[in-house]
Write a structure and sequence with these properties.
It is a single chain. The chain is α+β, with helices and mostly antiparallel strands. The protein contains two helices and 18 strands. Strands 5, 6, 9, 13, 14, 15 and 16 form a seven-stranded antiparallel sheet that branches. Strands 10-11-12 form a three-stranded antiparallel sheet, with no helix packed on it. A hairpin with a 2-residue loop joins strand 11 and strand 12. Helix 1 packs antiparallel against helix 2. The longest helix has 39 residues. The two termini are 23 Å apart.
Length: 236
């Protein structure tokens, strides 16, 4: 009978995780370039007992295109398809669709968190002037003179999924990333989050119903245990 309470606990735990994922999506509905997380069941086998399989709710990003919004800021850049910017924080490279950048005091193009945008071939993108233009292929022009090209990458086919880092960034081995052959950049625009409030409300309601089912199952277990204890008490 202990399997009953274990099942109830697993149902409620999964529902809680799904609600948490939906809440994270809603909290980032106004975050530029944010990709909503989709919940799914991840199966894993325990190494301690052959054939013992457990399931946990995990999430993965959904790279549906978000709406492109004009901003007029020359360093705001939106991407199309599944392309990503490469940014550096310390000695670590991360990948993102968050396209709000600015030029700091050293001339480095950075995110609001201070992560340095990378250029094709490697290295931080450092510019001597604010008056550059960014072409649709990522070429940075000072007047008519090309001075740099922004690194635009994507996850290689067959590579493991990227690991989320915070809300808007992903980590992956550099070997798993490849340059986008023909990127499509939109300077002076940002990509809005692809979160739909209606979808997240439906996901939350579904998870709440599952949690209620788990709670009823736990209550059934309590009722059965109560009856067992009553019968045992009468037999003494």
């Amino acid at each position: 009978m202990s399997g009953l309470i274990e099942a109830a606990s697993a149902i409620m735990s999964a529902a809680e995780r799904r609600i948490s994922i939906a809440a994270s999506n809603v909290s980032n509905i106004s975050t530029p370039g944010y990709k909503r997380r989709s919940a799914f069941l991840e199966l894993s086998s325990s190494p301690s007992r052959t054939g013992d399989v457990s399931a946990a709710v995990a999430s993965r990003p959904v790279f549906d295109q978000g709406k492109l919004i004009p901003t007029g800021n020359r360093f705001d850049i939106a991407l199309s398809d599944r392309a990503l910017f490469a940014v550096r924080t310390g000695d670590r490279l991360l990948y993102t669709r968050y396209g709000q950048f600015h030029r700091d005091a050293s001339g480095t193009i950075v995110t609001p968190q201070g992560y340095a945008l990378q250029q094709a071939g490697g290295g931080d993108l450092v510019l001597d002037s604010d008056t550059v233009t960014i072409g649709p292929d990522g070429t940075v022009l000072d007047g008519e003179r090309p001075v740099a090209r922004i690194a635009i990458v994507e996850l290689d086919e067959g590579a493991p999924a990227m690991e989320p880092v915070g809300d808007s960034y992903f980590a992956a081995p550099q070997a798993a990333m490849r340059d986008v052959a023909a990127p499509s950049l939109h300077a002076g625009m940002i990509e809005a989050s692809n979160v739909s409030m209606g979808d997240e409300m439906l996901a939350s309601m579904s998870a709440i119903r599952d949690a209620e089912r788990g709670a009823r199952l736990a209550q059934t277990y309590d009722d059965l245990m109560g009856r067992v204890m009553t019968v045992l008490g009468q037999m003494r």
